[in-house]
Amino acid sequence: MANDTRAGLAYALAGFVTLAIGDVVIKTMAGTWPPYAVAALRFSIGSLALSVWLWRSEGTKAFVPQNLWLQMARGFCLAAASLSFFSAIYIMPLAEAVAISFLSPILTQAFGGLLLKERLRPQVFVVSLIALVGVFIVLRPNVAELGWAALLPLCSAVFFSLLLVANRASAGQGSGLSMQVFVAGFCAPVLIVVSLAAKFSGIPELDFGWPSWGVVLRCVVVAVTATTAHWLAYIGAAKAGAAAIAPALYVQLLVAIVAGWLVFDDVPDVFTLAGSGLIIAAGLYLWRDGVRATSPKQGLPIKR
């Protein structure tokens, strides 16, 4: 339905704006506490708070998933995506890390078609390739200059795309709140294990102590913003389809550029702005084309 598509895109857009705000907060912790520990604390806080909320509103039966393996997969994908991206924005300019992660919409199109058998319009692939050109402009002169760090947002993009597809596959298996409890509840243990493995690895650079109150407070802020963002993205995927909401991700780049400039003094140059503009324009076109394709004047909506 056209209304479902519009509503799904609106939910996703709001979610990704909220997620971008959390990214800014995460980057302010670079050098104070390791990214894997920040991710573990953030999801532990979120999981606990959401679990209490779910218990009070829906009771203990809501904690039993219909498909355990699918929910575990969602949690693992979120853990891998978050750990990779947290690490990336610690060591890279925020806008560059976000730009590389914009391979996610293209991967989501492919995964959605491969795993969920969603039908996709040819325009989706054409516009996604145009957006990819914009990514390469932002990363001039070439990705090789970033070294291994360039692989971190790429890894995040892969797992975030799989998370969006898994969200679509799990639609209808519980309330939006229970879906958030499942994904955070399975994500937090993975990140705790990673953090403990790093601390007790015997490698001095990976060791860490107790966080300051400033770090804890910022982790709480990130937990609130990110949990809200993922809930909105989940609702968006359930309403419109994983591939349809993917272009809304581009709004994160706009927030990243502005925040990098104002907060971290990473002034964007002409190439960064040009590439970012191309990415955003492609995303907005895909949004408009998606709405047109599902309007009554265009006949029956594309089956998803």
Keywords:
304 residues, mainly alpha, 0% strand, disordered C terminus
Layout of helices and strands:
Blueprint: H1 2-27, H2 35-58, H3 68-91, H4 94-100, H5 104-116, H6 122-138, H7 151-169, H8 176-199, H9 213-240, H10 242-245, H11 251-262, H12 270-293
Walk me through the structure.
The protein has 304 residues and is an all-alpha fold. The protein has one domain (2-296). It has helices at residues 2-27, 35-58, 68-91, 94-100, 104-116, 122-138, 151-169, 176-199, 213-240, 242-245, 251-262, 270-293. α2 (35-58) runs antiparallel to α8. It is globular, with a radius of gyration of 19 Å. Mean pLDDT is 81; it is low at 295-304.
Q: Characterize the biggest β-sheet.
A: none
Distance between the termini: 10 Å
Helical stretch tally? 12
Count of individual domains: 1
- Give me the secondary-structure category: mainly alpha
Low-confidence blocks of residues: 295-304
Please estimate the helix content. over 70%
Instruction: Write the H/E string, N to C.
Output: HHHHHHHHHHHH
Overall, the morphology is globular
